[in-house]
Amino acid sequence: MPANLVVGAQWGDEGKAKVIDYLSKDTDIIVRYQGGANAGHTVVVGGTKYVFHLVPSGIIYDNTVCVIGNGVVLDPDYFLQECADLEKSGFRVKEKVLISDSCHILLPYHRMIDEARELGSSPERKIGTTKKGIGMCYADKMLRMGLRAGDLLDKEVLKKKLEHILDVKNQELVKYYDLEPVRFDEIYPNLLNFAEKMGKNIINTIYYLNEELDKGKRILLEGAQGTGLDIDFGTYPYVTSSNPTTGGALAGSGVNFRHLKDVIGITKAYATRVGEGPFPSEILGEAGDILRKLGGEYGSTTGRPRRCGWFDVQMLKHSIVVNGINSLVLTKIDVLSHYDSIPVVIGYEYKGKKLSHFPSQGLEDVKPIFADYKGWKDDISGICDFSKLPPACQSYINSLQELVGTKIGIVSTGPDREHTIIMK
C-alpha cells in the first residue's frame, strides 16, 4: 500500500492539520517526520479546537497509530505535558504513539542557547525563532553531539553520554554566552522519568513503517512549517533548521521512496509568514492588519501575529517543483469574501528583467508583478459543493489552478473538518 505526504507549499501555517485530520479517517498510521515543538497544528472538530505541537493530529481518530519519526527533535518535558493535555480531552495518546529510537532529544541548554543567540543578534540578523531550541538541537545532531531517544533505554549508556555532552555544553554556556551551567543531577532524573513513562513506545520505527506498508497499511506523512522555510530550498537564512519538503519526509521517516504515491501540497488562498525574511507579496500597514484579523492569523504556538500577503504563484511553482506535488489543497478561501478585488502575484521582476523561477538569492529585491481578480463579497463559510460557490469565487479558484499548473483537489471553506469541498 502507498504512503502519501502532506507538505506545506508556502511559509508554513497553511492549514495542514485540518487536511491531515480529514485524510486520517482513511489512514492507518500518521508519521511526523521533522521539526519540534516550535510548530503548532490546529484542528477544529464539531466546534472544538485542538492544538497539536509534537503529537500528530491524527491521534483524534481511534483507528490510527501515530509515529514520531527519526527526523523530529523531541522535547521530553513538552511532549509529556502535551500528552497529559490531550488525555484530559479523552484521547488515548500514550498507547497509540510510537517514538523513533533515532529521534534526537532536545534538552534545556538548547533553549538557553537559542534564546541567547536570538536576543544577542543585531536587528538585521535576527531570524525570528520561537526560542524553543530546535535549531540548536539540530546543530548538535550534525556535530554528532546529540542524545537520541534510544539512549534513554539504558541508564549507564545515558549517564556516560550525558556527562560527556554536559562537559562540552557547560563550557559553551559559561564561556561564550555568560550563562549558568546546567546540572547533571537535574537533567538525568528527568530523562529517566521520561524513559519510565514512554520507554515501551521507543522502537525502531524505520523498520516498523516499511513492514506495515508491506502488510498493506496506509501511511500519511506530515511535517511542520513549509517549503519557503526549508533549510535548503527556502529563503535562507530566514528558514527553519530542517527539511519540511519531500526529501525531508523520506529522510525523517525512513519510508522507502518506492512507497510514496501522492504528494499533497497545502496552500492558503492568500499567503502568510511568521518571523523575519523576504516576503514579496506582503501587505503592509492597515490593509495587512485587516487580512490578519479576517483570517485570525496569529501563531498557534507563540500567538505572534503573522505577516500577511497575497497569493504568490511563483512561490507555489517553486514548491511544486521541489516537492513533486501532484495535488493541491486550497485553504481559507472564505477569508477573501471581504474583498471587491483580489490581487495575485503572478511573477517577479529583478533589476528590470522578469524572472523565470523563484530565486535562491535576492528575493528581498524582487518586484512582484500583480494581476487582479474579481471578488465575490458573499459569505461562503461552510459550503461543501463547488457549484454553490459564487461564480467569481469559482473563477478565482480555477485561475489559481491554471496559473500554478497543478490541480486543486480539495478546497477548505472553514476551520471545521466538515467545511470541505472535494473537487470533481
TrEMBL record:
Role noted for this protein: Plays an important role in the de novo pathway of purine nucleotide biosynthesis. Catalyzes the first committed step in the biosynthesis of AMP from IMP.
SMART domains in the record: Adenylsucc_synt
Lineage of the species this protein comes from: Bacteria, Pseudomonadati, Spirochaetota, Spirochaetia, Leptospirales
Pathway annotation: Purine metabolism; AMP biosynthesis via de novo pathway; AMP from IMP: step 1/2
Residue positions binding Mg(2+): 13, 40
Cofactor(s) recorded in Swiss-Prot or TrEMBL: Mg(2+)
Quaternary structure (record): Homodimer.
PROSITE patterns xrefs: ADENYLOSUCCIN_SYN_1
Molecular functions (GO terms): adenylosuccinate synthase activity; GTP binding; magnesium ion binding
Binding site for GTP: 12-18, 40-42, 306, 332-334, 412-414
Pfam family, one: Adenylsucc_synt
Binding site for IMP: 13-16, 38-41, 130, 144, 225, 240, 304
Gene: purA
Family in the record: Belongs to the adenylosuccinate synthetase family.
Catalytic activity: IMP + L-aspartate + GTP = N(6)-(1,2-dicarboxyethyl)-AMP + GDP + phosphate + 2 H(+)
Cofactor binding summary note: Binds 1 Mg(2+) ion per subunit.
Chain sites annotated for binding substrate: 300-306
List of catalytic residues: 13 (proton acceptor), 41 (proton donor)
Example GO biological process: IMP metabolic process
UniProt entry keywords in alphabetical sequence: Cytoplasm, GTP-binding, Ligase, Magnesium, Metal-binding, Nucleotide-binding, Purine biosynthesis
Organism: Leptospira idonii
Protein name as annotated: Adenylosuccinate synthetase
